[in-house]
């Protein structure tokens, strides 16, 4: 069945951190504009509502993961998932955004008509097909599949007698106290889960095929705490945010320019955190340079403390096969387990898997090019949010939302109905993300491209994007504006 279509000025896809932020910026700038958020799940929060595994937390500090417009007032800079979820939901409720969300609406198709200058968006809702029209389409759906995490094919997994759990689908009742738990993985999820399961009484082995860079930082931000004591909340938040932006940018740039020095610095820290004589070369010495993949942050040394106390063992090896009682490794070692957790990554999807169609032609995303890493070549009145890989997601989301507001203001001021990035064929191509984790490499063939020059380049640098997206002109040779009559 199909329901009757309705029209809104802006249709936002996704009610997570990005979607709520987008709604705030739009209604603040244009209180007269109509908008709706279509959310495929049953609740606000996106990532922070989906993931329920023990210890889930941010891997960015909350002074940059929080919205620019709403200070984070929590006591921890590295916050737990429920606290972040409350922050997002409170932001939506305080601003009436929650009233504009349609839940259980999975957007499957969006068709642009240049004759009408409209998007017709098709969504599935409780067995029915719902259609809406919108003048502007804003995708805030993230970049990974919510219904399925990534698990490689492991030989013999059907032989294992215990539960095998992916963190993206954590069971409500999973008793780990007194159990031997093997976590397969070395990324942010694995290093979060390990200490959390130790706290619940498990004996944990973290099995990694190759190491990641892992560093500790205080759960509380001492500078931010001092600022809060002497300044109003908003001013203290802005200064703490600026300080953390500067520090994270400096660390990334130093890593890119002097990778061996950064590697040595990280190793020196780990030598202080780990037991004397610990085999750092095997378990904490990645094959890649710092920030070729995202650094893993642990608060207050929790992972290293668990290792020192003998509650968590790092195992660096490959899996030969699952057995009835655990895993047999390539080295011949038998690793016993009552529970196996596959913290093996994500499956990427672009714009929630929506089919984009412009004037009857389906847009092949690998053949398109990203404009300012937030719009697509030859796709009118469409923007998307994909956050930074080397910094907080929300830093980029805020900038994209501010740019969309300025773009719409420019269109209003000049009577334009349509804004389309048009690619010059002389612009060379490059992969959209110059980043090497497995979930990105597996998805390069479904992502759009970036170009070899502005405005088609993706800069993983907030301080360089800031003047362009917040203050720079919205007019350039690549952006084509048209009025309704054209």
Automatic annotation (TrEMBL):
Belongs to the FAD-binding monooxygenase family. SUPFAM superfamilies: FAD/NAD(P)-binding domain. PANTHER family: MONOOXYGENASE, PUTATIVE (AFU_ORTHOLOGUE AFUA_8G02570)-RELATED. InterPro entries: FAD-binding_MO, FAD/NAD-bd_sf, Flavin_mOase-like. It comes from the Bacteria. Its cofactor is FAD. This is NAD(P)/FAD-dependent oxidoreductase. Keywords: FAD, Flavoprotein, Monooxygenase, Oxidoreductase. The keyword Oxidoreductase applies.
């Amino acid at each position: 069945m199909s329901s009757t279509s309705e029209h809104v000025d802006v249709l936002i896809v996704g009610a997570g951190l990005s979607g709520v932020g987008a709604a705030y910026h739009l209604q603040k700038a244009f209180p007269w504009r109509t908008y709706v958020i279509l959310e495929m799940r049953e609740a606000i929060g996106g990532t922070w509502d989906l993931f329920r595994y023990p210890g889930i937390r941010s891997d960015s500090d909350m002074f940059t993961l929080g919205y620019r417009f709403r200070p984070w007032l929590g006591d921890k800079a590295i916050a737990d998932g429920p606290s972040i979820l409350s922050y997002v939901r409170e932001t939506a409720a305080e601003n009436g955004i929650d009233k504009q969300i349609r839940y259980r609406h999975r957007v499957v198709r969006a068709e642009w008509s240049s004759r009408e200058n409209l998007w017709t968006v098709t969504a599935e809702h409780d067995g029915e097909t719902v259609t809406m029209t919108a003048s502007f389409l804003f995708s805030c759906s993230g970049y990974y599949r919510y219904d399925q995490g990534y698990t490689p094919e492991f030989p013999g997994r059907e032989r294992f007698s215990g539960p095998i759990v992916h963190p993206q689908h954590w069971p409500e009742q999973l008793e780990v106290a007194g159990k031997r738990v093997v976590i397969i993985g070395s990324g942010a999820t694995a290093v979060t889960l390990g200490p959390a399961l130790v706290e619940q009484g498990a004996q944990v082995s973290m099995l990694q095929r190759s190491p990641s860079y892992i560093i500790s930082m205080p759960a509380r931000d001492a500078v931010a705490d001092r600022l809060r004591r002497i300044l109003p909340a908003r001013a203290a938040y802005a200064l703490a945010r600026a300080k953390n932006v500067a520090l994270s940018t400096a660390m990334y740039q130093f890593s890119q320019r002097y990778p061996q020095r950064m590697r040595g610095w990280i190793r020196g820290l780990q030598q202080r955190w780990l037991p004397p004589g610990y085999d750092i070369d095997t378990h904490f010495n990645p094959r890649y340079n710092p920030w070729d993949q995202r650094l893993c942050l642990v608060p207050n040394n929790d992972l290293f403390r668990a290792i020192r106390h003998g509650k968590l063992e790092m195992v660096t090896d490959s899996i030969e096969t699952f057995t009835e009682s655990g895993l047999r490794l390539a080295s011949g070692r038998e690793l016993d387990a009552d529970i196996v957790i596959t913290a093996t990554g994500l499956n990427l999807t672009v714009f929630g898997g929506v089919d984009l169609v412009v004037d009857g032609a389906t847009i092949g995303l690998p053949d398109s090019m990203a404009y300012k890493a937030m719009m697509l070549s030859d796709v009118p009145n469409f923007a998307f949010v994909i956050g930074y890989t080397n910094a907080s997601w929300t830093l980029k989301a805020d900038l994209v939302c501010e740019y969309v507001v300025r773009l719409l203001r420019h269109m209003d001021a000049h009577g334009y109905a349509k804004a389309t990035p048009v690619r010059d064929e002389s612009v060379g191509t490059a992969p959209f993300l110059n980043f090497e984790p497995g979930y990105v490499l597996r998805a390069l063939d479904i992502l759009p491209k970036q170009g070899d020059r502005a405005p088609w380049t993706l800069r993983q640098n907030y301080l360089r994007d800031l003047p362009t997206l917040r203050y720079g002109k919205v007019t350039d040779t690549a952006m084509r504006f048209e009025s309704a009559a054209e």
